[in-house]
Design a protein that fits this description.
With 149 residues, the chain is mainly α. It contains seven helices and no strands.
């Protein structure tokens, strides 16, 4: 049975679930905003207990990465991501999830060939191109700024 593009498009449209764009955007905003608010709260907490500003920022970032890794390991982060969608892709927690998820998935294959090999399968390109971009931007800044600065 041959069908043309128009018939196929109609079949796809009938079989596809309806999109709830407004609801999805609202959930992404609420969850993503909550993660960012938690990060700000952690920063202020560490600053109030005596850390200098740069160390308080570092501790807040470490806390968010650790929390996202633990939640991923427990399987809770993926449940949150199903509800919040892109809201869980807040860079630091999404990056932690991208490293831990493949490690959890391939742990049965062993520490070296499973976890060690597959851990950076998703996050690896981000790391590589992030480092490459920072080197390029650093060189551009070096050459366009006065030599004394």
């Amino acid at each position: 049975m041959k069908i043309n593009k128009k018939e196929y498009s109609y079949m796809v449209e009938q079989a596809s679930p309806p999109s709830h764009l407004g609801k999805n955007c609202l959930w992404a905003f609420i969850i993503g905003g909550s993660i960012c608010t938690l990060g700000e709260w952690l920063y202020k907490f560490y600053k109030n207990i005596g850390f200098i500003m740069s160390d308080a920022r570092l501790m807040a970032s470490i806390s968010l990465v650790g929390l996202a890794a633990v939640l991923t390991g427990l399987g809770w982060y993926s449940r949150l991501a199903k509800k919040a969608g892109a809201g869980t892709l807040v860079p630091i927690t999404g990056f932690a999830n991208a490293v831990v998820s493949p490690a959890m998935e391939f742990r049965a294959e062993g520490l070296i060939t499973g976890t060690g090999t597959k851990m950076f399968i998703i996050a690896g390109p981000v790391i590589v191109y992030g480092i490459l971009a920072s080197v390029v931007y650093g060189l551009i800044l070096f050459f366009i700024s006065p030599m004394g600065r």
